[in-house]
Amino acid sequence: MGRIFFIIAFSLQFFFIIFVVSKIGYIPFSNGINALSFSGFLVAAAYLLMTLFSKSDSFSFLIVPFVAISQFLYIFTEKFPSKLSGIFDSSWFQIHVSFALLSFSSFLFGFIASVLYLMLYRELERKNFGRFYFGLDSLDELNKNLTYSTLLGVIFLIFAIYTGHGWLNEVKGSVKGISTRIYASYFTLLVYATLLFLKFGKRVSGKKISLLSIMGFFLMVVAFAFGGTH
Distance between CA atoms of 82 and 107, rounded to whole angstroms? Predict the structure, then answer.
């Protein structure tokens, strides 16, 4: 039932964003409310892709309310400027931000799957079958969610880096202090590519992969926190 509501909510938001883009001529993230709403849509898109690959639907109960709230933000605060300002009025930039948010969303799902994996693992190890045992998918399902969300995150990040360089070439040095953000992107790519190498090479257990995924997510957040903003 949760998956049905999720697909309905996602479809409605998708068509609404298509309508908005056709009306204003750019992807709607020009202010805080718009950015939050569009981020909600991309979180849902990343989750939908993850479930299509993993065949597991673990987080619908978390995602549906978030998508619904982001949709209502669009409806009740529909205020968009006629165009983006300055260097941000660029197709490269809009695509770059979209891929970056998709990447972050995918890594976030990997982080959530890792935390849930460790909680369930702890209950099974202690033979204390509580709410996690009865309320969560199996360890294998959570492990698949972690694997595919990480793989999608890496793919989206590669596209984000590529389109980011395209945007930087277009603005030709108009953006100050961007080098640390570029380093943070490559650092994140290295961390998660290493995680995938260990996962597909079966060099570490599911528990260790989950711990590494949690560590990788925090390293990514720290790297971008000290990497400045666009």
Answer: 33
